[in-house]
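We give its fold:
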Amino acid sequence: MEYLPMGGSIKMIDESLKLAYGEDSEFINDKRIAAVQALSGTGACRLFADFQRRFLPDSQIYIPTPTWSNHHNIWRDAQVPQRTFTYYHPESRGLDFAGLMDDIKNAPNGSFFLLHACAHNPTGVDPTEEQWREISYQFKVKNHFPFFDMAYQGFASGDPERDAKAIRIFLEDGHQIGCAQSYAKNMGLYGQRAGCLSILCEDEMQAVAVKSQLQQIARPMYSNPPVHGSLVVSIILNDPELKSLWLKEVKGMADRIIGMRKALKENLEQLGSPLSWDHITNQIGMFCYSGMTPEQVDRLTNEYHIYMTRNGRISMAGVTTGNVAYLANAIHEMFASLRNNPQCSRSKSIHKAPSNPYP
């Protein structure tokens, strides 16, 4: 076949659902999930946003502060009104769980919430399993709809099953959910735009209807998804030997990033830094939300040729055994020069260890 149907590769979709919902999921067996192949995670989010706009035109989406910047563009261009909810706690460089729960409780009943399933981008801060259970319970009380963006399954812990835990908790609690999956990172298929959008429905009949509508939205948007990436995913996940090798490599990749976090923190501490760097190892996934200001990031770029986004987000995938000592030394020297400059007192307190950090 030269091209796929509007809904994409059935084999790829089937394997994607097993990754997200579980190998022996009752929802897969009961055919309650409407799913289509999407143009990676971005395309999956956009399809869902257009679906939301078309069938619930008066609804809005709650997006965490901060989030991946393109989330705002996706729902904006789909003409879905946006609100934000509290997520990151700058002082502890961790989760503002109290603020998050307050916003969930105060949102109108039946609101849509965008949740990062694991390895939150850009902060690297994820709720604990217990916190996810509390979030799920409060969603149930408020009848909110959770939409999970799972762009980094495997990147957080190295175990795709463990990284899907938040989704499994919501499923156990009886939620209907939406899920965007991407193979850009965990299979290195950035250029192939391989992803999946799934929506858990009330029954098989509703799932058939929802999938039909998703395909109708996709048709004028991009007609049908690309073949090559879906074949790669299907071949790997359908072959036990290849899948086992993939899982091993995903774990190796995640373990390397975890190791670089530990090395960066240890290097900074060995340099005698008086600042707290616990957040480097407390956070998880590809990115470390360092807490550095745009001005501090600019100094690292201009004086040490170290490059990161101006919100202080470090790509831990770019930290290696060969450059981690240089990176730590540059950060340490930059903060030391600020401490010696009385005019930079505002910057000096950026990394002061919190007296009562959030969990």
